[in-house]
Design brief:
Blueprint (H helix, E strand, L loop, with lengths): L1 H20 L31 E12 L4 E11 L5 E6 L3 E6 L8 E3 L8 E6 L6 E7 L7 E4 L11 E4 L19 E9 L5 E4 L12 E11 L5 E4 L2 E6 L2 E5 L4 H7 L3 H12 L7 E5 L8 E2 L4 E4 L12 H8 L7 E3 L6 H19 L1 H20 L25 H18 L1 H14 L3 E3 L1 H13 L5 H5 L1 H6 L13 H14 L14 H9 L7 H11 L7 H13 L6 H10 L3 H11 L3 H14 L5 H10 L6 H9 L1
Parallel strand pairs: 1-10, 15-16, 16-18, 19-20
Antiparallel strand pairs: 1-2, 2-7, 3-6, 4-7, 5-6, 8-9, 9-13, 10-12, 11-13, 14-15, 17-18
Helix pairs in contact: 1-8, 3-4, 3-5, 4-5, 5-6, 5-7, 6-7, 7-8, 12-13, 13-15, 15-17, 16-18, 17-19
């Protein structure tokens, strides 16, 4: 309670500064020491962070593409270190030695392995220990890391490595307190084969070094899930004075064109929510096996190549990852039960950026697609399911179970309802103050709700009743005061569907000015009883099966599976084998698994595609397809 009152006092001071004097620059001094973590019970961490916390991490790692291992050392600087032991999170790490400040070895032990959480590493500390150095190497199958052969890259000449630490996979490549409640600065020395380039979620160079040694520094404190590393044949293109993009040489020009509006997005976000706190915003386009659309690693968003549509129609993803610079990276959920504090806020801000950049109608189309997606997700749950609450209970479960439309789109809908009740100007003022008040901190839902009530709701006794805070946060489903967007552009799409179903020729449909979002609404709202003849007619007219837009193609492939449209089967097979983005793979494999005949085909394709997927995708799809890996397959994967 004392911590919460302290935060509130700081919050009030900062909000006053913002209101009276305008936006203040957020401090980020060299090796800024993280504050003690919020007193939370994190069900996904073994760390004794109530006794001792990591304030700084120094990595010195070599990248070995022959053994698929990282090896070297992690030196941890400790705060509040009156403790007699340090408990860290690890998973499948081979620990060689542990030394303390003076270089003397100390006793350590690894606990019993848990399939999800890994093994606690308990290190004995001397009195007033300031630093602990762990010499270790990763397992070739470390779940955070994907090692790609040259054949699996765009260029085909050099291997590639990238990490994905969210949610609790940092422990598979760095011994750490793997909880979002703990924030630390870091620096790193990474040794890679000559000719390759290393980049991290830190200050990056723009060219490869001659000796294969790269130095990195992250001066702002971040949680462990934002640790990120990639190594490959990379080039850099400048997008603006504070932004740029890295990609393989054959991809870099297309990526630079697609992301040309990035600097304008940054300026727009700053006008809304205060100074950009991370100095630079760069992007890295990864190979197609990357399991997510994007990962908001500070200073360097990791992005899927599936957003390179050639028309900038999918850059909402960039707006989403940029928004994380405030919601998630600057102010972070303290546990994965509070995931909506990261993603609900970010989804709301993404839509606001889209509105500022491309207009109200464009943003409203995106909002409709999001609310439709949320309603479908809620329909798949029981009406009173706790998984439809904004605050999850993920104890004993993977934090990935909380990465649903509820956190993203119910969270955004809650904030949209708050904006509707208090007015945009007042709401923007509140959000700017919120980000300033809790900058470089990790908070839980009660802390946010307390701040919301004190700063916004208590001024109007009737406002709390209208907003229904507890119903939104701790209750199931969608409250009645949800704000439902109704863009006229989609009314035109629905009229077009009705016209075609009424006998109009597909060649006469008025679709000349349609965007990706019009097409998605069109495909998702076609009748359930489409015939093969009708599918063929649509495909012949609009070339859906050969679409280069991944969002449109997947929407069409889902229809093809459900309606047994075999003409799309080769394209479906090619997509499943070449793309590793879980957002697309899960619904496609899920639709195939709905029938025995299609399931058998899907498992055959999956057997071929699985070795090229990231471990995050493999874990989710193994469960979906009830995959049983044979000893022969496991040996092949281990060798790979």
């Amino acid at each position: 309670m004392k911590k919460k009152n302290t935060s509130r006092t700081r919050a009030l001071t900062l909000v006053s500064l913002l209101i009276v004097g305008g936006c203040q620059q957020i401090d980020s001094p060299d090796h800024q020491t993280s504050s003690a973590p919020l007193e939370v019970d994190d069900p996904h961490s073994y760390a004794n962070m109530d006794e001792v916390t990591i304030s700084h991490l120094a990595l010195d790692l070599g990248v070995d593409f022959e053994s698929n291992r990282l090896s070297g050392s992690a030196t941890l600087s400790l705060s509040n270190s009156g403790a007699t032991k340090l408990v860290l999170d690890t998973r499948d790490l081979d620990i060689a030695t542990v030394t303390l400040d003076n270089g003397d070895e100390t006793d350590f032990s690894l606990g019993v392995a848990d399939p999800l959480l890994g093994r606690p590493l308990e290190i004995q500390l001397a009195k007033d220990t300031k630093q602990v150095t762990i010499v270790y190497q990763t397992n070739p199958r470390a779940e955070a890391l994907q090692w790609l052969t040259p054949e699996q890259t765009a260029g085909g000449d050099q291997p590639f490595l990238f990490s994905q630490s969210q949610a609790i996979l940092a422990r598979t490549w760095v011994p750490c307190q793997d909880s979002p409640a703990v924030r630390m600065t870091y620096d790193a020395t990474i040794h890679v084969p000559p000719g390759l380039m290393a980049v991290m979620s830190a200050e990056n160079g723009t060219t490869a070094t001659t000796n294969g040694v790269f130095e990195f520094s992250m001066r702002q404190p971040i949680p462990s899930y934002l640790l990120a590393l990639a190594v490959g044949d990379l080039e850099f293109r400048e997008l603006g004075p504070r932004s740029g993009v890295y990609a393989e040489p054959s991809v870099i020009d297309a990526a630079a064109w697609e992301f040309a509006d990035t600097e304008e997005m940054m300026a727009t976000a700053e006008r809304l929510y205060g100074p950009y706190p991370w100095e630079r915003y760069d992007l890295l386009v990864l190979p197609p096996s990357f399991p997510f659309g994007g990962m908001e690693n500070p200073r360097l968003t990791f992005a899927t190549p599936t957003i390179l549509a050639g028309d900038r129609s999918l850059v909402a993803l960039v707006a989403h990852e940029l928004a994380h610079s405030w919601s998630g990276n600057l102010v972070t959920n303290a546990t994965w039960n509070d995931f909506w504090l990261n993603e609900g806020f970010t989804s709301y801000i993404e839509n606001r950026l889209m509105e500022e950049l491309y207009g109200v109608e464009y943003a409203e189309m995106l909002a409709v697609l999001d609310i439709d997606s949320l309603r479908r997700a809620l329909d798949d749950l029981e009406p009173a399911s706790p998984d439809s609450h904004l605050v999850f209970d993920l104890a004993g479960r993977s934090p990935d179970d909380g990465m649903t439309d509820v956190a993203y789109n119910k969270g955004a809908s809650f904030l949209r309802s708050l904006e509707h009740e208090v007015g945009r100007s007042r709401w923007d003022e509140f959000l700017t103050g919120y980000f300033a008040a809790f900058s470089f901190q990790s908070i839980d839902t009660p802390t946010f709700v307390d701040f919301l009530r004190q700063e916004l709701l208590q001024e109007d006794p009737d406002l709390e009743a209208r907003v229904r805070v507890d119903e939104w946060v701790y209750g199931p489903g969608l409250p009645e005061n949800v704000v439902v967007p109704e863009p006229t552009a989609f009314t035109h799409v629905e009229e077009t569907i009705a016209s075609w179903q009424g006998g109009a020729s597909v060649a006469d449909l008025p679709i000349a000015d349609w965007t990706t979002h019009h097409w998605l609404h069109f495909l998702r709202n076609l009748p359930d009883d489409l015939s093969i003849l009708e599918m063929t007619e649509l495909d012949d007219a609009f070339s859906f099966t050969s679409s280069k837009n991944s969002e449109v193609l997947v929407a069409w492939l889902l229809l093809a599976v459900r309606h047994d449209y075999s003409a799309a089967t080769p394209a479906l097979e090619s997509f499943l084998i070449s793309v590793g983005r879980l957002k697309f793979l899960s619904p496609l494999y899920g639709a195939l698994a709905a029938s025995e005949e299609n399931l058998e085909w899907a498992q055959t394709v999956y057997a071929r595609a699985r070795p090229s997927y990231h471990p995050v995708s493999i874990g989710a799809l193994d469960r979906l397809l009830e995959w049983q890996e044979s000893a022969e397959q496991a040996g092949s994967a281990q060798a790979h």
